[in-house]
Amino acid sequence: EASKGNTTGTTDATSPCSLDDTAVYVTFFEIYGGRIQDLLNERKRLKVLEDGKGEVQITGLEEFEAVDAEQFLSLIDAGNEKRTTHATEANDTSSRSHAICQVLLRDKKTGRLRGKLSLVDLAGSERGTDTKSHNRQRRTESSEINTSLLALKECIRALDGKLGHVPYRASKLTLILKDCFTSSLARTTMIATVSPGASSADHTLNTLRYADRIKEKKVGGAAGGDAKKKKGASARPKKSLKPASSLPAPKEEEMHPEPMLLDDIDEDDKQYDDDFDLLVDNDDDEQGGELDSIEKLHSNVVQSLYDQEEELLNTHMASIQENAELLTEEGKLLQGVQGDDVGDYDIDQYAAALGTILDKKSKLCTDLQARLSSLRIKLQEEEELSKRRVAVAGGK
């Protein structure tokens, strides 16, 4: 049984919980290449939105009810099998995405969230020297993985330092996990996978340092730095995630204002840019020097690549839809001058209408070509930076 809706929200911690009145739901999605994909629903693309209370939501994500342990494990296995993996120099089946499995406990009668366990499997970071033989797809994946891991570290650093601003929007990973940092009810545990082999000593030490910073994190206080700016940020929309047939409709006064798509808010776009710039500026754990500068430039270009790729795809789809409408309009125009029952027609009117249609088609092609050209420039920049990175790394 599946249901759609938003998945974040506060829990009803004061209500006792038992199997008799509590249902268990599972969601499983991944963050791959800047996109969020539902692994239990044919990789459907999901959107990250923010409601009027400043709470982050993932819309369209399906929740599947697990009635017993066997079904619960089956759902987790199904999602894990569909996670994006590819062969790399280090592993035959390397994880190329961050995977998030959420176990939700809901009241059977009201659908109210009583508890949530988020299991986050982070993809491993990769150094530039480890990706010298990667193609562009693998390189951009590695850059995105490293950027999101760095964003997570910077959020933890900001919280530890009790800074006024925490750069949650530097990556989708930290934005989605925001409630893990801002809620006083949240408890976080990191499990680090390390190798005892001498050849992996550097990776092991870096992983342990990363995990140690998580361990020192104290939830509360600075954790609410951003959340305090938006009163009631911990309140959850009462919008039901269970099938409508099994739950009573929520009262109108219980609903939050409609969620706002982050990409549609100018100041939020600026906030993302500011957070990403802060992320790059604070990255002081690399080797330094020319290689460090190239890595930072490469991260910037990859982020721009993902943004422009998304814009190109959206523009292309809109162009196809509008061209279809124009084709229908052209058909009607021709029918009006070539139909069997047409005796006479105004050639000037026909020419003017056809000219308008062709102008619209020309504009669609021009806009699409401009976005394509911009993307190709970024692809070339990424290629050149990658070659520079390999050359500099090889000279060390």
The radius of gyration computed from the alpha-carbon positions, rounded to a whole number of angstroms, is: 25 Å
* H and E order: EEEEEEHEEEEHHHHEHHH
Sheet bearing the most strands, described?
A: 9 strands, antiparallel
What structural class do helix, strand and pairing data support?
alpha+beta
Residues in helix, %: 40-55%
State the low-pLDDT regions, or none.
Answer: 221-268
Separation of the first and last Cα atoms: 56 Å
**How much strand content do the residues show?**
15-25%
Number of strands: 11
Shape: globular
Q: Residue-averaged pLDDT, rounded?
A: 75
DSSP helical segment count: 8
List strands and helices in order, with pairings.
Blueprint: E1 2-5, E2 22-32, E3 35-38, E4 44-50, E5 56-59, E6 61-65, H1 69-81, E7 85-86, E8 94-95, E9 98-107, E10 113-121, H2 136-160, H3 172-176, H4 178-182, H5 201-215, E11 260-261, H6 266-281, H7 289-338, H8 347-394
Antiparallel strand pairs: 1-6, 2-3, 2-6, 2-9, 3-4, 4-5, 4-11, 7-8, 9-10
Helix pairs in contact: 2-7, 7-8
